[in-house]
Amino acid sequence: MRYIKNVYHLERGLNKLTDGRVNPTYSTGQVILPVLFGFLLRVKSFNELSLMIKNHEFSQLFPRGTKLPQIDAIRDTLKVMDINGLKQINHHIIKTAVENKTFENGTIDGYMVVAIDGTKFFGSNRKSCSECLKNTKR
Q1: Cα 12 to Cα 27: distance, rounded to the nearest angstrom
Q2: Cα separation of 113 and 136, whole Å?
Q3: Quick one: CA torsion of 21, 24, 27, 28, rounded to 10 degrees?
Q4: CA-to-CA distance for 26 and 14, rounded, in angstroms?
Q5: Burial code of 105-116, b = ≥16 C-beta within 10 A, e = fewer?
Q6: Residue (of 27, 37, 28) closest to 5 by Cα position
Q7: Neighbours of 125 (CB within 10 A)
């Protein structure tokens, strides 16, 4: 986490995020940070993330006395937040990774990176016939 904070300056980008809430108790960045940690730790659901927040499992990652938002505040913020800010953060992370030569020869430490959107497992558009491209499971 220190590496992410020091190299990619993630908190700076998160502090610039905005949303449509009026007089919020927590800034958008404060709300998004537990979600990001949950994503990095592969938390499977908001219920699990809520338990982790209630059990103070993120307390070592925040300054002493920092109160984290409850899952309802997180959900409400995610509904109305400006996606363009997240796109800028993502662009900055990729740019920094390229500048730091993280992607040597198209890999990260010899590993290939792929993105999975979670909508279709083992799918491909490179099949031998048009019938193979049809999804029959619903």
Answers
A1: 13
A2: 29
A3: -20
A4: 12
A5: eeeeeeeeeeee
A6: 37
A7: 6
Number of CB atoms found within 10 A of residue 49's CB: 21
- The C-alpha atoms of residue 49 and residue 138 are separated, in whole angstroms, by 29
Residue 70 burial (10 A CB sphere; 0-12, 13-18, 19+): middle
In a 3-state reduction of DSSP, which class is residue 111? strand
Contact indicator for 26, 101 with CB cutoff of 8 Å:
no
Helix and strand numbers (H, E) in the chain are 6, 2
Q: Is the pLDDT of residue 51 over 90?
A: yes
Q: For residue 69, what are the contacts with CB-CB under 8 A and spacing of at least 6?
A: 25, 26, 30, 31, 34, 53, 77
Q: How far apart are alpha carbons 75 and 64 in whole angstroms? A: 24
The tokens 């031998």 sit on which residue? 128
113: tokens are 């990176």
pLDDT digits (tens, 9 = 90+) for 71-130: 999 998 988 988 898 899 889 988 888 888 777 777 776 776 666 555 555 555 565 666
78 close to 9: Cβ distance less than 8 angstroms: no
